[in-house]
């Protein structure tokens, strides 16, 4: 009986060994087939990622051209032109950062994507810092400590972004597929973005006369409703009415956005139709505070002024004064109007 038991155990071990080998073969075959099926998928995914990143690099290089224009030609621009260039650069850089973050990571090495995001984030922040630094110089009319700190931090961020993107480019080149991206380097003259170079840039911006603040809000036209039916000498005769409305058009000929600019119409009774000085009427004032941006026109509707039939009035319309712009004769216009009986 003992030999029989040994023969049974031997067959049991053989059966187990065969089962293990079969299971191992099935698992290995499954893994190999999975690798084979994922290979084309990974290759396609990585190729799409490389194509999208290629576009990101090209767009970032276009922003680099904007940066070089600001750095090299800021003092030749108008104040509004420089501010617009800085704003456009900051907006474009932030958009590129957002586009980069929306691209799914490559299948081969997802961590590579972090380098791209870091480079684009630093560039977007550097553009914002540059804009804020120059804005502070323009607002103060001189180089401030805060402006200097902002510009120097922008320089550090730009240098770091160039280095990070170079690492990203090498990593993608050495990854499976060997994708080659265009170079993307914002700093072509390193000394210009060092503290000494930035100090020179800041001082040139502060001392450029074409970048000085100009406050010049002008009164261009004024319209009265109802319109005059006729005129007697310098007196405009309006049809019978109990109120007069005024629309004023102003223009900002300066290079700053002006806030809380007073636009005002004052109507003061002069005489009645009988020639007597009016006693029942009083001076009426309509006033609004407005904001107007550089090189823009703005129509301002003032609330109606109460009038009395058969009375002659002196209507005065003016823009200003403000804390930065005193009242000048060109900012004021007067009309003599008569309300028909």
Mean pLDDT: 86
Overall SS class: alpha+beta
- Strands of the widest sheet, in order across it, are 2-3-9-8-5-6
Runs with pLDDT <50, length 5+? 1-7, 16-41
**What string gives the helices and strands in order?**
HHHHHEEEEEEEEE
What would you call the quaternary organization?
Answer: single chain
Question: How many helices in DSSP terms?
Answer: 5
Helix percentage range: 40-55%
Separation of the first and last Cα atoms: 141 Å
Strand-residue proportion: 15-25%
Major beta sheet summary: 6 strands, mixed
Which descriptor suits the 3D outline? elongated
Quick one: how many beta strands?
A: 9
Number of domains: 2
The radius of gyration computed from the alpha-carbon positions, rounded to a whole number of angstroms, is: 38 Å
Please characterize this protein's 3D structure.
- The protein is of the alpha+beta class and 341 residues long.
- The chain has two domains: 210 residues, no CATH class; 123 residues, Immunoglobulin-like (Sandwich), CATH 2.60.40.
- Helices cover 49% and strands 23% of the residues.
- It contains five helices and nine strands.
- The chain has a six-stranded mixed beta sheet with strand order 2-3-9-8-5-6, with no helix packed on it. Strands 1-4-7 form a three-stranded antiparallel beta sheet, with no helix packed on it.
- Helix 1 runs antiparallel to helix 2, helix 2 runs antiparallel to helix 3 and helix 4 crosses helix 5.
- The longest helix is centred in the first third of the chain and has 72 residues.
- The radius of gyration is 38 Å and the shape is elongated.
- The protein starts with a helix and ends with a strand.
- The N terminus is likely disordered.
């Amino acid at each position: 009986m003992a030999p029989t038991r040994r023969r049974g155990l031997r067959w049991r071990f053989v059966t187990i060994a065969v089962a293990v080998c079969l299971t191992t073969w099935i698992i290995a075959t499954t893994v190999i087939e999975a690798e084979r099926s994922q290979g084309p998928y990974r290759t396609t995914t990585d190729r799409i990622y490389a194509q999208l990143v290629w576009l990101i690099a090209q767009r970032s290089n276009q922003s680099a051209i904007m940066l070089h224009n600001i750095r090299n030609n800021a003092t030749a621009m108008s104040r509004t032109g420089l501010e617009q260039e800085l704003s456009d650069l900051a907006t474009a850089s932030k958009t590129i950062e957002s586009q980069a973050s929306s691209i799914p990571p490559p299948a081969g090495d997802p961590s590579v994507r972090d380098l791209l995001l870091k480079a684009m984030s630093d560039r977007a922040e550097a553009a914002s810092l540059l804009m804020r630094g120059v804005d502070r110089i323009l607002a103060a009319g001189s180089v401030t400590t805060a402006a200097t700190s902002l510009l120097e931090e922008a320089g550090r961020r730009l240098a770091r972004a160039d280095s990070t993107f170079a690492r990203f480019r090498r990593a993608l080149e050495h990854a499976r597929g060997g994708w080659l991206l265009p170079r993307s380097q914002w700093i072509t003259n390193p000394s210009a973005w060092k503290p000494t170079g930035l100090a020179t840039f800041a001082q040139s911006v502060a001392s450029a006369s074409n970048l000085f603040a100009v406050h010049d809000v002008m009164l261009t036209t004024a319209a009265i409703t109802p319109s005059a039916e006729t005129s007697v000498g310098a007196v405009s005769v309006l049809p019978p009415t109990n109120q007069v409305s005024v629309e004023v058009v102003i223009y900002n000929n300066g290079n700053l956005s002006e806030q809380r600019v007073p636009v005002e119409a004052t109507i003061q009774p002069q005489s009645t139709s009988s020639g007597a000085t009016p006693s029942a009427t009083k001076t009426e004032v309509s006033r609004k505070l407005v904001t107007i941006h550089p090189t823009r026109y703005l129509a301002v509707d003032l609330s109606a002024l109460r009038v009395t039939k058969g009375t002659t009035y002196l209507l005065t319309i003016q823009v200003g004064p403000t804390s930065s712009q005193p009242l000048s004769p060109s900012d004021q216009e007067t009309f003599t109007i008569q309300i028909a009986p």
